[in-house]
Design brief:
This protein has 117 residues and is mostly helical. It has five helices and two strands. Strands 1-2 form a two-stranded antiparallel ribbon. Helix 1 (29-41) crosses helix 2, helix 1 (29-41) crosses helix 3 (55-81) and helix 3 packs antiparallel against helix 5 (92-115). The longest helix is centred in the middle third of the chain and has 27 residues, at 55-81. The protein is elongated and about 75 Å long.
């Protein structure tokens, strides 16, 4: 199933009328980090995704997946270490420090495996 390409004449040349899909995507922090990585270190993949019109959907998917994985990993780490809501009420500063450590560790893992690969 191929789409017919429509051309327009420009002087002696026939130029294809190419357009980028006009879909809206919400790209957050991790999607933007992925975009920067692709532009700097994986130029051929970046160009390929751009030409196919798949870059924005790729970035949105990376952002969504990274956010979900970070939350899952941090929750599992908190559960494994016994960090609970009761601890949050009784020792809020300790709870905050531990949760920040879990989130930081989860981000490092996800960034290296998903965003920067």
């Amino acid at each position: 199933m191929t789409e017919e390409i429509i051309y327009s004449r420009n002087g002696d040349y026939q130029i294809p009328n190419l357009t980028v899909p006009q879909e809206e995507y919400q790209i957050g922090k991790y999607g933007m980090m992925r975009k920067t990585y692709l532009k700097q270190y994986r130029r051929s993949l970046y160009s390929s995704l751009m030409i196919k019109g798949e870059l924005l959907s790729h970035l949105a998917e990376i952002d969504r997946t990274a956010t979900e994985q970070i939350q899952q990993i941090a929750s599992k780490m908190a559960e494994a270490e016994g960090v609970t809501e009761a601890m949050k009420v009784k020792y809020p500063m300790m709870w905050t420090g531990l949760m920040n450590n879990f989130l930081h560790s989860a981000k490092e893992t996800v960034l290296s495996e998903l965003v920067y690969s």
